[in-house]
Write a structure and sequence with these properties.
Layout (H helix, E strand, L loop, with lengths): L2 H9 L4 H32 L7 H7 L3 H13 L10 H35 L1 H4 L3 H27 L4 H14 L1 H20 L2 H6 L1 H11 L1 H11 L2
Helix pairs in contact: 2-3, 2-4, 2-11, 3-5, 4-5, 4-7, 4-11, 5-7, 7-8, 7-9, 9-11
């Protein structure tokens, strides 16, 4: 083999175009796997009417999304940089099996809280309470969702007890304000897309949103690795 050919082989998958192609391939593969594992819940969410009585049903439909999101985060985090080592499907299923129990211990309480808040907001007119109460409920829901984002990233990438994941998520909520603000911006975009279009639009872009969530959370992930793992 000539030196030129050897250099070409060593350089395979290292150029900008190869890296972009690898990223696109990983995002598409993870997106398809996410949709496959979350499909029953996503179908229910899309078909449900946006009425007060359907809030608990929407929460039940969202149950499969937690493990699917966790597996997608795991796969994207461990995405190979070499085109010859791209195995997002194997990483996705490994993350799904490893994280399903732990993530549900975070996901289910968050969904329960969102169900209570959503039901109260949906029936706000009949409750006869001051208007500022609705604002408070929205702020609590946003804070809880940002906490859930931190917890989802931590429990997807590390092996901690659920109570420790919950504490770390709260800790980094104030410890890393840049992460919190970046994730708030992501939440606003996702929420706006849901209101203007449909939940299906966010689901079809889930891998992209999760990639951005990982990018936003990189300083938090690095600190967890440095300070809280052996």
């Amino acid at each position: 083999m000539s030196d030129t050919a050897a250099r070409s082989l060593r350089g395979f998958g290292q150029g900008p175009l190869s890296r972009v192609s690898a990223l696109v391939y990983s995002l598409l593969a993870v997106e398809l796997l996410f949709l496959a594992t979350a499909l029953p819940g996503l179908a229910g969410l899309v078909l449900l009417d946006r009425s007060a009585g359907n809030v608990p049903l929407a929460a039940a439909c969202a149950l499969p999304l937690g493990p699917a999101l966790s597996a997608a985060l795991y796969a994207l985090r461990r995405r190979g940089r070499d085109l010859a080592d791209l195995r997002p499907a194997a990483a996705f299923w490994r993350g799904y099996r490893a994280n399903v129990r732990g993530v549900l211990k975070i996901w289910v309480p968050w969904l329960a809280g969102m169900t209570v808040i959503g039901t109260n907001l949906a029936n706000f007119g009949a409750a006869g309470v001051p208007g500022w109460w609705a604002v408070l409920l929205v702020l609590v829901a946003v804070a809880a969702t940002l906490w859930a984002g931190n917890a989802l990233v931590i429990t997807s990438l590390f092996e901690f007890r659920p109570v420790d994941v919950a504490r770390l998520a709260v800790y980094f909520f104030g410890r890393r304000p840049a992460v919190t603000l970046a994730n708030l911006s992501l939440l606003v975009v996702a929420g706006g897309l849901t209101l203007v279009v449909t939940e299906a639009a966010v689901a079809l872009l889930a891998a992209g949103f999760l990639a951005v969530l990982l990018w936003n959370s990189r300083s938090m992930v690095e600190e967890v690795e440095r300070e809280f793992t052996a």
